[in-house]
Design goal:
This protein is an alpha+beta fold. The protein has helices at 11-16, 31-38, 86-96, 128-153; strands at residues 5-9, 17-27, 42-43, 48-52, 55-59, 62-63, 80-83, 101-110, 116-125. It has a single domain (5-126), classed as Beta Barrel (Small Protein B, Chain: A), CATH 2.40.280. Strand 4 and strand 5 (55-59) form a beta hairpin.
Amino acid sequence: MSEEKILASNRKATHDYFIEDRFEAGVALLGSEIKSIRAGRVQLREAYVRVDGSEVWLINAHVSVYDPAARQNHDPLRPRKLLLHRTEIRKLIEKVKLKGYTIVPLDIHLSSKGRAKVTIALAKGKRQYDKRQTIAQRDSERDMARALGQKERR
């Protein structure tokens, strides 16, 4: 994991959900899509993951059109199949059936071999008061770190 290059991340996912399990999935891509992803022209802001039968799909991830591909280009918002082991898919299906669980994409990165991978997470939705509590905790930790830093300077 030390050589992986993160190309896009879904920062809102950690704000809106409690992340429980993480999975790394391969992505079935077209040639123009991988070239565009390697150029960093991908967004996961509105993306989500759906399980259909025994397949897992990345929906609404925006991979920009690759200009040099001209006529052989792809649809920027097309559904992309995620490649996972059967046992991982079963685990996801089992958990998603429970109320409140969903699957969210966290980031898209290139592996050390140059392949595009998506980190997906099994997540449970946060309520509004949970979000406020997380923000307050982060602020208090930042204040404590700031106070310790000031103390060390004296």
